[in-house]
């Protein structure tokens, strides 16, 4: 077993074996999908080199890349565009977040066949906008009234997507009953005992948790496959029906949480969170401009889980669809401002550098060239890793 194979197999050893095979298969799609599924490689390599100038500590989402921004409905019922994945969230140097994001730009632009010069220009734009937002010391938020360009189009489209549309995609009607569809390739049947135990657990959560939706009961449950990095975790989708409103339904996602893949490579002392799920949603609520609706945690069979509503408006911008350089410019500019804004919201909070520290870091700019150099070179390393992984997968080394 070679070094790369050992690192990948070791990291995924604790996940569901059948689902890990699905994860490996997805990671063969392209270098960017491989990058999304191997956050642990990125931070292990970064810790062995430490090429970056010092930066203030901040709460970070940990796995920032250009497809970890998207739309969601806040608890105030408005739709926002923001960072939307916090499974790897930790307290770390804020430069770690930035260098992973910039690396993703170089990998994505290579996949899109843009010239290296255009990738460099876009990476520089991201760093310039990120720094300028930090230096101003004022966080921004993006919703349909403030969005521009294709982000505005994206949010307006998300607002028009109804729950009826979501249910049509996820359910089937049978004998005048609605049930979760097993024809969906992302849905898998659960054994009878586990399904009954899960339904009882969520029904109890609805009745006892202040975060749960009132007057609903569970009428269906399946195993759910979603994402790339999180494939292999235990994850379930529930169909809930209102007990007092006719033909009204909700979909709930319940995803297992495990420790951040960033944490083993940090010397920064972390908070002692009650559970890994508590870590994820607490940092998410700190970093997002408005908390997502129906966000909660639970413990089932000894594992901690994040519970959240499966929203019709929740979606990510797929970089493969952004083949227009001008469209990409506005998106990257927005992503940079949102990255800085998320860090500013956490300024001075339980170990994070103060807002003054972050403003000074943004105003400095002398660190940017080191970030660009590392990200550009690491994108090439990731391309080599991907080629080696794909060849190994095709030889059956990951079965």
From TrEMBL:
It holds the Pfam family DUF2252. InterPro entries: DUF2252. This is DUF2252 family protein. The lineage of its organism: Bacteria, Pseudomonadati, Bacteroidota, Sphingobacteriia, Sphingobacteriales.
């Amino acid at each position: 077993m070679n070094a790369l194979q050992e690192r990948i197999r070791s990291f995924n050893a604790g996940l569901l074996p059948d689902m890990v095979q699905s994860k490996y298969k997805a990671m063969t799609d392209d270098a960017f999908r491989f990058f999304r599924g191997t956050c642990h490689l990125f931070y292990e390599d970064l810790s062995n080199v430490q090429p970056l100038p010092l930066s203030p500590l901040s709460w970070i989402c940990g796995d920032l890349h250009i497809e970890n921004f998207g739309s969601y409905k806040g608890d105030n019922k408005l739709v926002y565009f923001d960072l939307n994945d916090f499974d790897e969230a930790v307290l770390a140097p804020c430069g770690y977040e930035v260098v992973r994001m910039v690396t993703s730009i170089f990998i994505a632009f290579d996949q899109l066949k843009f010239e290296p010069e255009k990738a460099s220009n876009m990476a520089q734009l991201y760093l310039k906008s990120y720094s300028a937002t930090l230096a101003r010391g004022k966080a921004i938020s993006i919703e349909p009234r403030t969005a521009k360009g294709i982000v505005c189009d994206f949010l307006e489209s998300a607002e028009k997507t109804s729950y009826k549309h979501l249910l049509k995609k996820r359910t089937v009607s049978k004998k005048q009953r609605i049930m979760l569809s097993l024809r969906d390739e992302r849905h898998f049947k659960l054994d009878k005992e586990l399904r009954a135990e899960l339904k009882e657990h969520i029904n109890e959560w609805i009745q006892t948790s202040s975060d749960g939706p009132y007057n609903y009961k569970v009428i269906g449950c399946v195993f759910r496959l979603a994402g790339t990095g999180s494939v292999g975790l235990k994850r379930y989708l529930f169909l809930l029906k209102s007990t007092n409103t006719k033909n009204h339904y909700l979909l709930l996602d319940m995803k297992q949480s495990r420790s951040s893949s960033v944490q083993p490579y940090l010397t920064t002392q972390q908070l002692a969170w009650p559970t890994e799920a508590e870590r994820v949603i607490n940092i998410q609520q700190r970093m997002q401009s408005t908390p997502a609706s129906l966000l909660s945690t639970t413990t089932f069979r000894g594992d901690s889980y994040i519970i959240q509503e499966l929203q019709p408006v929740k979606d990510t911008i797929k970089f493969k669809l952004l083949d227009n350089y001008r469209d990409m410019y506005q998106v990257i500019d927005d992503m940079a401002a949102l990255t800085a804004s998320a860090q500013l919201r956490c300024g001075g909070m339980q170990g994070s550098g103060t807002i003054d520290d972050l403003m000074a870091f943004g105003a400095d700019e002398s660190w940017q060239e080191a970030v660009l150099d590392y990200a550009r070179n690491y994108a090439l390393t990731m391309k080599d890793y991907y080629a080696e992984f794909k060849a190994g997968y095709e030889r059956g080394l990951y079965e």
